[in-house]
Design a protein that fits this description.
- It is built from three helices and 28 strands.
- By secondary structure, it is mostly beta strands.
- The protein has one domain (54-382): Beta-galactosidase, Chain A, domain 5 (Distorted Sandwich), CATH 2.70.98.
- The strands form eight sheets. Strands 10-11-12-13-28-22-21-16-19 form a nine-stranded antiparallel β-sheet, with no helix packed on it.
- The longest helix has 30 residues, at 21-50.
- It is globular.
- The relative contact order is 0.15.
- Residues 1-31, 33-37 and 39-47 have low confidence and may be disordered.
- Bound molecules: 2-acetamido-2-deoxy-beta-D-glucopyranose (3 copies).
- Residues 135-136, 247 line the site of one 2-acetamido-2-deoxy-beta-D-glucopyranose.
- InterPro entries: Aldose_1-epimerase, Aldose_1/G6P_1-epimerase, Gal_mutarotase_sf_dom, Galactose_mutarotase-like, GH-type_carb-bd.
- This is Aldose 1-epimerase.
- It comes from Cucurbita maxima (Pumpkin).
- Pfam families: Aldose_epim (PF01263).
């Protein structure tokens, strides 16, 4: 715009020194071109903001694709023990399918991930009513959470020494019933040839609000189209779970995993005791490392013997939700492959579920003085 004003000034200055009609004609033609170009530029810029695209980051053998629809991880290509590359996350071939998705494949969910009981909570004496989208409860931010909106791309550097993409989303006061405007950013960076770091930040612009973001990628270390993850070996560094009722709402109690199918303190096959549960795993673990502002510590390690791939997940969040894709049924994914239950597992680091309704859980309230800062580190290796 500045450029436009300057050009008009220049042309006007030149026009003042002109005399002939022909030159006046040239002046108006020039002015017209400048206006047309500026108008085109503005339209183009606003179009670009709303455009949904696919973006790729590459470093060494690691390549990760994203879309700004839901700040979603679309694919992760990493080598197996023989150096063969496979895509180890579930997903779709087209953006249209992501827009129609009900599984949250690869997306960042929010404003509050997981369940909020009764789709309501009270904060500073005010009752907030949310959209109920799972029975009487709110799941993953409501019917149109952060996984179902277009994020802006504020930085994109495909390769080089610090490949990164930064998405941002401005959530409005009252969106899905949540209080206050909120500015959210998600920064995905390849910090090494085999490490993806995600930093999720949120700033409350006017009112305090609960914030709990979760990265909802479905991992299958054998490849997205290799079948189920029941033989993956899993270790979770959490010795307690937040016990839930039949609707998967926390009762408020924390219980030891000892002697239960939830015990993954030592590496165990995911499928070793899954039959003892009605559908599979869908549970929040209280991580033993507690909470820290900046420090990331190991939350979980997954190992697939067949491919030799290992994924380590580190975080500064207090909990991790283990979900084994229990409700996936006949979902047509990439390359036409049809995903079924237990085709992948999710390790969604986050605050405890329904924390807004449980004063004994670590607070998820974000204020203008206390911003949100959630770090995840994904380390890939193969042997
Ligand atoms: C959208 O999802 C519905 C139900 O899951 C499915 O029947 C339909 O074919 C999907 N449409 C597209 C364009 O993928
Ligand atoms: C939802 O709440 C209503 C009213 O309290 C109750 O009758 C109904 O059983 C609840 N439904 C579920 C799925 O919990
Ligand atoms: C994104 O995160 C990386 C790694 O932590 C950091 O080096 C980089 O400065 C961040 N980018 C922005 C724009 O904040």
């Amino acid at each position: 715009m500045l450029l436009f004003i300057r050009s008009v000034k220049q042309i006007w200055r030149r026009a003042k020194s002109l005399h002939s009609l022909a030159n006046m004609g040239k002046f108006f033609l020039g002015l017209f071109c400048v206006i047309a170009l500026a108008a085109f530029g503005i339209a183009n810029a606003s179009e670009k903001k709303r455009e949904i695209g696919i973006f790729e980051l590459k470093r060494g053998d690691l390549s990760v694709k994203f879309t700004n629809w839901g700040a979603t991880i679309v694919s992760v290509l990493v080598p197996d023990k023989h150096g063969k590359l496979d895509d180890i996350v579930l997903g779709y071939d087209s953006i249209r399918e992501y827009q129609n998705d009900t599984t949250y494949f690869g997306a960042i969910v929010g404003r509050v991930a997981n369940r909020i009981s009764g789709a309501k909570f009270t904060l500073n004496g005010v009752l907030y009513k949310l959209i109920a989208n799972e029975g009487n409860n709110t799941l993953h931010g409501g019917t149109r959470g952060f996984s179902d909106v277009v994020w802006k791309v504020t930085k994109y550097q495909k390769s080089g020494s610090s490949p990164q993409i930064v998405f941002s989303y401005r959530s409005f006061d009252g969106e899905e019933g949540f209080p206050g405007d909120l500015l959210v950013t998600a920064n995905y960076t390849l910090i090494a040839n085999n490490q993806l770091k995600l930093t999720m930040k949120a700033k409350a612009l006017n009112k305090p609000t609960p914030v709990n973001l979760a990265q909802h990628t479905y991992w299958n270390l054998g490849g997205h189209n290799s079948g189920d993850i029941l033989s993956h070996r899993l270790q979770i560094f959490g010795s307690r779970i937040t016990v839930v009722d039949n609707y998967l709402i926390p009762t408020g109690k924390l219980e030891s995993v000892k002697g239960t199918p939830y015990d993954f303190l030592k590496p165990r096959k995911v499928g070793s005791r899954i039959n003892k549960l009605p559908k599979g795993y869908d549970m929040n673990y209280a991580l033993d490392h507690g909470t820290g502002e900046e420090k990331v510590k190991k939350a979980a390690v997954v190992y697939d013997e067949k491919s030799g791939r290992t994924l380590e997940v580190l975080t500064n969040a207090p909990g991790v939700q283990l979900y084994t894709g229990n409700y996936i049924k006949d979902v047509k994914g990439k390359g036409g492959f049809v995903y079924q239950a237990h085709a992948a597992l999710c390790l969604e680091t986050q605050g405890y579920p329904d924390a807004v309704n449980h004063p004994n859980f670590p607070s998820t309230i974000v204020t203008s003085k206390k911003p949100y800062n959630h770090i995840m580190l994904f380390k890939f290796s193969a042997k």
